[in-house]
């Protein structure tokens, strides 16, 4: 078993799923619809939709994101955005390393 962090939605254990490019676009659109110039404000429907996009049940059971408590939902948001920031940083570092290795002709 891998070391994926587990989040409970009611009694169902969930973890982040590997998003397809289409799913990542849907998540980005959802986030964009909830963000204004000063803050991100997600209503409960947007939160449940977000959770259903980014999480999957560990054992294949169906899960209802509405059964997740608010504290856990906030933790999922926090972990998701931290994961995205780290991924972006890793990509930037890789491109920086690649640029140093490529010699001008």
The main sheet comes to: 3 strands, antiparallel
Shape: globular
Range of strand content: 5-15%
Look at the helices and sheets and give the structural class.
mainly alpha
Tell how many strands the DSSP assignment holds.
3
Describe the strand arrangement of the main beta sheet, using strand numbers: 1-2-3
Low-confidence stretches: none
Total count of helical runs of at least 4 residues: 3
Order of helices and strands: EEHHEH
Distance between the termini: 48 Å
Helix percentage: 40-55%
Q: What's the pLDDT, averaged over the residues? A: 83
Backbone CA Rg: 17 Å
Entry keywords:
105 residues, mainly alpha
Please provide a written account of the structure:
With 105 residues, this protein is mainly alpha-helical. 54% of the residues lie in helices and 10% in strands. It contains three helices and three strands; from the N terminus they run E-E-H-H-E-H. Strands 1-2-3 form a three-stranded antiparallel β-sheet. Strand 1 (7-9) and strand 2 (12-16) form a beta hairpin.
SSE order and pairing:
Elements: E1 7-9, E2 12-16, H1 21-34, H2 44-54, E3 55-57, H3 70-101
Antiparallel strand pairs: 1-2, 2-3
Helix pairs in contact: 1-2
Task: Quickly describe the structure.
The protein has 105 residues and is mainly α. The chain has helices at residues 21-34, 44-54, 70-101, and strands at residues 7-9, 12-16, 55-57. Helix 1 (21-34) packs antiparallel against helix 2.
